[in-house]
Write a structure and sequence with these properties.
A: alpha/beta, Ubiquitin-like (UB roll), DNA polymerase, domain 1, 6 strands, globular, B: four-stranded antiparallel β-sheet
Chain lengths: 182, 291
Amino acid sequence: MTSLFAVVPAESSDDTPVRRITVSVNGKRHTLDVEPRLLLAHMIRQGLELTGTHIGCDTTNCGACTVLIDGAPVKSCTMFAVQADGHEVTTVEGLASASELHPIQEGFRDEHGLQCGFCTPGMMLTAKALLDENPDPTEDEVRWALSGNLCRCTGYQNIVKSVILAAARLRANNHVEEDEAP
Amino acid sequence: MYPSKFSYEAPETIDAAVALLREARGEAKVLAGGQSLVPMMKLRFASPETLVDINNIPGLAYHGADPDGTYRIGALCRHVDLEKDGNLVSEQPTMAAAAPLIADPIVRTRGTLVGSLCHSDPQGDWASVMSALGGSIVAQGPDGRRSIPCIDFTNGPFQNVLAFDEIAVEAFVPAPMGNRAGGYLKLERRVGDFATVGVAVSLEFSGGQVARAGIGLTGVGPSTICADEAAEVLVGEDLNAASIDRAAALAAEISQPRSDHRGSEAYKRHIVATFVMRILSNLQRTTQEVA
């Protein structure tokens, strides 16, 4: 059990209401005591020290803080940590395995889908939610799905290419797995 | 942590949620999707003492038509549920046109239609759509349920007529008089921006004639505008060029836009007329093709 007060101090500690939550982040269960007003983005970044989730605009516009809740993309600056109680959170740290990058990450590397990299975690998680649901999206569908994620480098062309490449590789991987199945 | 301190409650029944609102005596807010409320709390425009999270209440995430044709949307139906429902375009074409234009795709995974109506933002898309459809909101309080027509629900920007111990549990659209047709168009500077102008049109056809019409306008007044006079000229005849022109001109006249960084008053009026005409002309074409 981790208390988040050490890293996210309350304004006054005496009468602060605290809720105990259990949340799975990238497959690992955490039991945490949180103040209800703690935003999910802050729980992830300061509490769990998973700083891959970026906070950009902080006003529900930019999508840099996007994480997956039970597989669906959510702006973690616009949700309280208490609301994640009992749910599964995936952050960008949950994409790669110990030994290799996720095909979406490889796609972004190979197609130069990032410049400054700030929007990238949100872009990749939104892309993951899209590809989980639609493994073969058109360019239009990719643009549509990513329209809630802003890239201030305006590197959209390569971001879209990265997702299309990742989709093709994921489809190819799945075919191989199917062929190898007994 | 930017929001003011609050106590958090996550009841599992509507009755328990109502009881919590009653205890808080007006100092509580209901949290559904939170895509407007949480940003307002972060800015401390809203500082509720108690937050009543209704996300753990089962049985509120529904949408669909009753056997009699009444279309119901529960308080936890997310925008994305509507956007991804392939039947919506035939069942509720105005809603189907609006659903993919609400905010942005990520906001749509959490935000709710009923919550959007309760937020009563003059630039909210759903209020125009539901007003055009003649929809109502069902509020549940300590004494049971009551229905409030959408046009009477909002009594000012960001204000509604709910009592402090009532929860909006559902929105519904009455069964159509015949076949439904409709559309929604929205001008925005970029995805996720507030509407510069939004226009919702709902038609109900019976025997080739318009039996009922509704036009709702987003972002061109202090609250959602129901352009009843414009809709009325369409009723009782087939959809024709003369009535379309007249409806477009009347809708522009009824709108009350203000010049701002999104455009001048004249420009916005022009867009209102253009959108009304575009939606209706499109419907005229498709209804003729069907006939």
